[in-house]
UniProtKB/TrEMBL annotation:
It comes from the Bacteria. Keywords: Metal-binding, Oxidoreductase, Zinc. One of its GO terms (molecular function) is oxidoreductase activity. Belongs to the zinc-containing alcohol dehydrogenase family. Residues 8-342 form the Enoyl reductase (ER) domain. It comes from Desulfosporosinus lacus DSM 15449. Its cofactor is Zn(2+). InterPro entries: ADH-like_C, ADH-like_N, ADH_Zn_CS, ER, GroES-like_sf, NAD(P)-bd_dom_sf. The keyword Transmembrane does not apply. This is Alcohol dehydrogenase.
Amino acid sequence: MKAFVYHGPKNMSLDQVPNPVIQRPTDAIVRVTTSTICGTDKHIRNGGLPEVEAGRVIGHEFCGEVVEIGAGVNKFKKGDNVAVSCITQCMECYYCKRGIYSRCENGSWIFGYKIDGCQADYVRVPYADSGMYLIPDSLADEDVLFVGDILSTGYFGAENGSIQPGDTVAVFGSGPVGMCAMATARLWGPARIVAVDIDESRLEFAIKQGWADYGLNPQKVDVTQALKDFTSGRGADVTIEANGFEPTFKGAIAGVRPGGTVSVIGVFEKPQILEMQNLWIQNITLKMGLVKANHIPELIDLIKEGKLNMKPLITHTIPLSQVAEGYDIFEQRRDNAIKVVLKADA
């Protein structure tokens, strides 16, 4: 089969590799119909996650058709169309039993990282009963494509913010994950959602889609002061860091009010500094972590009922055979690229 394979930093290629096979009774084999290129894939491509081994098939956000199931799979059958979580959950280990699925001792985030991923014709899905979700007949792949990763991650960031009705929420980083955080933050009824980014086109896009109410560009305004101006001098009740870089990390901490919450969902490659000599007295709550992806059924229901629509994030759709070009489009933001989707070759 065709698969996009990591051979080392800046060295990835579309190769012919063996088809995946059932390894355990709880496995399923899925024919990938639609997948994406994610920000984390970009980190891997550039060597930012050195633990990824050469020879690994990349990718972790996808939908597909079940073509084979192990003897221990009970919820799915051949021919089912499914959205798949990027988080593999055994449901038996210490962490799964406590609902911390992202720390599953037998799974966690492994697609395209510890095991072969979905930028391929086929993929093996471990613990299929707890990691796959039927796509309703009324929805297409593109409707639910992001529930397995970025939409769940955005929801996780908003949930960790403990948003209250009437709050001011500022999202630092207006990439796909940040926009998903904005869209899902709406579910808690904040008074205003503020997008923060140096890319004016992203700010305008987030506002146009109704995901943000205001956009702030740190190169043009003092973001911390602007957030205070929105809130009678206090600062944002909740800030969400969705980029994984020093400026957005510092901005999220500087922008939150005393007693507020900073929710960090960005992927970082470098250490960050917390200025505890200033922060200890602020009573700020700082939450972070890898998405648990435990609200996928609810997200699919919200999409089905028209309460969430993240399809506008899809700016480019190309066949898997052009995946290398897709990475260039994504990294270089060609033609205002936001999310590049890969479709199975005919």
